Amino acid sequence: MTKILIAEDENDIRELIKLTLQFNGFDVTTAYDGQNAVELAGTADFDLIMMDVRMPRLTGYEACEVLKADPKTKDIPIIFLSAKGQESEIAIGKEVGAAGYLLKPFAPDQLVKKIREILA
């Protein structure tokens, strides 16, 4: 089963993503901010990490940089979730190593499609 780590500081959004992914057959672990995501990422063999860009303690970008610098987590694809869709935001995400970028709000089928696309 595909293991996904979700890092999202807004509880309602985090739970919605979790339920959507579980319904589609994914094994989901959740983190409440960027620092928590970094701590959890090394505890299991995750196939993918989804992170909000704007989070407390570590932003998604900062957490991505930490994960990409760690030999244990550097190869895990990361998808950023953000309400900000400016080209500069997307460019920063790619610079720090993101495999994809999904703009909020998104439909559940868009989320699943993006994950399958990245994991293919």
Specify the structural class. alpha/beta
Count of runs of 4 or more consecutive helical residues: 5
| Head-to-tail CA distance between termini | 14 Å
Order of helices and strands: EHEHEHEHEH
Largest sheet: 5 strands, parallel
CATH fold-level assignment: Rossmann fold
Q: Give the CA-based shape.
A: globular
Strand order of the largest sheet: 2-1-3-4-5
Give a summary of the structure in a few sentences.
By secondary structure, the protein is α/β, with parallel strands linked by helices.
Q: Describe it for me?
A:
- This protein is α/β, with parallel strands linked by helices.
- The chain has a single domain, classed as Response regulator (Rossmann fold, 3-Layer(aba) Sandwich).
- The chain is 43% helix and 20% strand.
- The protein is built from five helices and five strands, in the order βαβαβαβαβα.
- A five-stranded parallel beta sheet has the order 2-1-3-4-5, with helices on both faces.
- Helix 2 (34-41) runs parallel beside helix 3 (60-69).
- The radius of gyration is 13 Å and the shape is globular.
- The two termini are 14 Å apart.
- 30% of the residues are buried.
- The mean pLDDT is 93.
Characteristics:
120 residues, 5 helices, single chain, 5-stranded parallel β-sheet, globular, alpha/beta, Rossmann fold
Record the SSE blueprint.
Elements: E1 3-7, H1 11-23, E2 27-31, H2 34-41, E3 48-52, H3 60-69, E4 78-82, H4 87-95, E5 100-103, H5 108-119
Parallel strand pairs: 1-2, 1-3, 3-4, 4-5
Helix pairs in contact: 2-3
